[in-house]
Amino acid sequence: MAGASSASEHHISPVNSDTTIATPGADQPQVEEKRDVDEPPDGGYGWVCVACTFFINAHTWGINSSYGVFLAYYLANDYYPGASALEFAFVGGLSISQALLISPLATYTTRVYGTRTTLLLGVALETLALISASFTHEVWQLFLSQGVCFGFGMGFLFVGSVGIIPQWFTKKRSLANGIGTSGSGIGGLMYSLATNAMIDRLGVEWAFRILGILACAVNCTCAMLIRDRNRAIGSTQLAFDYTLFKRPAFLLLLGWGFFSMMGYIVLLFSLPNYATSIRLTANQGSIIGAVLNLGQGLGRPLVGIFSDKAGRINLAGLCTFIGGLFCFVIWIFAKSFGVLIFFAIIVGTVAGTFWTTIAPVGAEVVGLKELPSALSIVWIVLVLPTTFSEPIALELRQKSGNIYLHAQIFTGFMYVGAALCMWFLRVWKIGQMERIATEQEKRPESTDAASAEAAAVYLTAKRSESSVSKRLLAWKKV
């Protein structure tokens, strides 16, 4: 997971397509031999897959986002007698961490049984989790249903669908991926408001049952319509390709994901409860959570559009840094409903940048063929931050004053740390482009057409008499 200048016609799909220059030795580039490669159609039935991914995200991550509403209700009403705030925090963390932990198995089932089977397994588990959660009476039962089982179901659906959009697009890859991932924001908006209304009118039990029925119907439909192109691109689909750890760029990618999730989960689950901590009502807290998801739904396609034009690594790093900056300069001082609404919607546009850009940026780092294997490792690494970030935030709360101050500072620094990882990744990418350009000058016949196009764009910048033009051209293409 193309600039505005005259050089924009030279699109850099080389380094994010099947013809990627492999760097198995991390520092020693090795140009692959010229060969016929599959060219993604850049549209067509791919837009149906984008729509399916949108609705799958809305009915997995979107429904999971409503846990902030459940959490605020549990804490305010002592719904499970004797349960602590820390235990409730782990339920929310488990739902995401288990989705990531199950990723190797989901990758394996995709390779052996196909994408549709993987998605239908996810539908069954997610439906079972939501329906069974409606019958829980003790917190350990909530751990197993809304935490573990829902996480497993979400994991099969997410892993089965996350790599499909990049297989259908090249020039519009980030845009298409942004539209698909915006489903989690739009779904979170709808289900945060709907869940609060259902709890008020029908109770927690029926809120869970209605969510389960909706998720089953929508996700089943999408599972039947979506198509992958694994055979066409020769996707490896390895559950754990340890050789990727030999690449420094991949380690930076993992660092970006780790720190991003430490901040993102705190924002996602803590904002509704933060609202009640500054004496807003539970209904206002649910609106805050919904507006955060609205920001994600509006912001993710925009991030996709601009990352295709300004560079995928560039935008990922910049938006991640802005997310941390907003935490420092706005969230810490948000003491009223209006300011918190403003913070929620603008931070929402950049808070989930990782989910919008991980597939396109991952393709830039490891290539499209190895992307599923790389993502499988990314999900495993993210198990730790997604499990413990919200419990850490709740433990950082103070007893008086700005209760969430330490948690807010923690969140901001996590985003800044993630942005630093992306800055170093950008430095690596520019170095890789220089090596490709040098190889093209020395042995033009050994470089495939797409990589030759990338080298031509870089050499244009390199030979420019204007140092400003040189820097702009190089900057735009990362």
How many β-strand runs? Answer: 0
Note the overall shape: globular
CATH class: Mainly Alpha
Per DSSP, the total helix count is: 21
Residue stretches low in confidence (pLDDT < 50, at least 5 long) are: 1-36, 464-473
- CATH architectural grouping: Up-down Bundle
What is CATH's topology name?
Growth Hormone, Chain: A
Structural class: mainly alpha
| N-end to C-end Cα span | 12 Å
How would the blueprint of this fold be written?
Elements: H1 46-58, H2 61-65, H3 67-77, H4 85-101, H5 103-113, H6 115-133, H7 139-162, H8 164-168, H9 173-202, H10 204-225, H11 230-233, H12 248-277, H13 282-310, H14 312-329, H15 337-351, H16 353-366, H17 371-381, H18 383-395, H19 405-442, H20 449-463, H21 467-476
Tags for this entry?
Growth Hormone, Chain: A; 74% helix; globular; disordered N terminus; Proton-linked_MCT; transmembrane helix; transmembrane transporter activity
Structural summary, described in words:
74% of the residues lie in helices and 0% in strands. It has 21 helices and no strands. It has 478 residues and is an all-alpha fold. The protein is globular, with a radius of gyration of 22 Å. It starts with 45 loop residues before the first helix and ends with a helix. InterPro entries: MFS, MFS_trans_sf, Proton-linked_MCT. Residues 1-39 are annotated as: Disordered. One of its GO terms (cellular component) is membrane.
